[in-house]
Amino acid sequence: MSFEDDLARLDAIARALEGDRLPLDEALRLFEEGVARLRSAAAALDTAESKVKQLVEEADGTLTVRDTPK
Questions:
Q1: Taking the CB of residue 41, how many other CB atoms lie within 10 A of it?
Q2: Is this model's pTM higher than 0.85 or not?
Q3: What are phi and psi of 64, to 5 degrees?
Q4: Cα 4–36–38 angle (5° rounding)?
Q5: What is the spatial distance between Cα 31 and Cα 57, in angstroms, rounded to a whole number?
Q6: DSSP count for the chain of H helices, then E strands
Q7: What are the residue boundaries of the structural domains of the chain, listed by start?
Q8: In angstroms, rounded to a whole number, what is the distance separating the alpha carbons of residues 26 and 47?
Q9: Over the stretch 15-68, which tens digit does the pLDDT of each residue have?
Q10: Assign residue 61 a region: left if phi > 0, alpha if psi is -120 to 50, beta otherwise?
Q11: Which residues contact 1 (CB under 8 A, 6 or more apart)?
Q12: Is the pLDDT of residue 70 over 60?
């Protein structure tokens, strides 16, 4: 699943859980799925963050790509 898929599904789950018409077992299943999707989305963000690079101009005018500081 992609990050965007996880976000869309999390939105749908949140809307479903906001209503009061779900049986308890269905609400619990959706909550568990939501937790799993949230973990997946967080992992995708962590991966993306580690790939972000910063372009730095050196004193001699050359450009160097460096990892962004955490």
A1: 19
A2: no
A3: -125, 140
A4: 45
A5: 48
A6: 2, 2
A7: 3-67
A8: 32
A9: 999 988 999 999 999 999 999 999 999 999 988 877 766 566 677 878 777 766
A10: left
A11: 9, 37, 40
A12: no
